[in-house]
Input
Amino acid sequence: MSIESTQPKRGDGRRGLLVLALACVFAFLPTACGGEASDGAQGDPGGGSQGEAAKEAKPSEGKPGKTKASPEETTAAKASSGEAAELAEARVSPDEIQNMLPADGKQPDPARPLPEDPPEGIEVYPATTNRTTGEPIEYGRTPPTNGDHDPLWQNCGAYEKPIKDRHAVHSMDHGVVWITHGPDLPATQVKKLRSYGDEDYVIVSPYPGQEAPVVATSWRVQLELDGADDPRLRRFVDGFRRSEIAPLSGNRCSLGVGNPQG
Output
């Protein structure tokens, strides 16, 4: 019986060396070609991490159909444009006095936020000052919208004759809406306007020389109207009486000057 040699064959050794060499080559290739390394980062010849760049380009994580919560929108962001956006940004100026006692000495009524959807056509004017003075006052527009005024305010209600600007401006400083109309407005329309005078914080009076048939004015905001039936008038009164941008809003309009007609 022949006995096989226990010495390793020369060919077996060569094959072993070849297998070992190939294993080293395949282990080296992924790292050398930018493949994923053991720590999960990809090689980057430029010195940065492609993995980090991929994360930055990836859309925000979260469930499909949902986005991350964003800060609450402000009124200014909701406003479409133009005067609505300007109104949304309006604030009481540091130059405007805010600490006067109400007309009757009691606590003021709470001011109301500005409407987010104001009637179309409003004009918003810059803040000025609201000092009281006995000196003559020149206003930049008619009817005036804001500014310095008489120490006495106009009592709320409807008037048959024109009232003084300086008294009406003081009332608007308290949050009043002032509705003015041309002297030649038909009597049926005047009657409709006068009904607003029965409401709180509203003054109605004729105003010679104004261009529009009817004008609604609150502190810093004005709207020209086609007549007493214009639906924007109701929206203006409801939206701007006791406006939060009237420096002394809520100070009421009684115990002042004037005798409104019932």
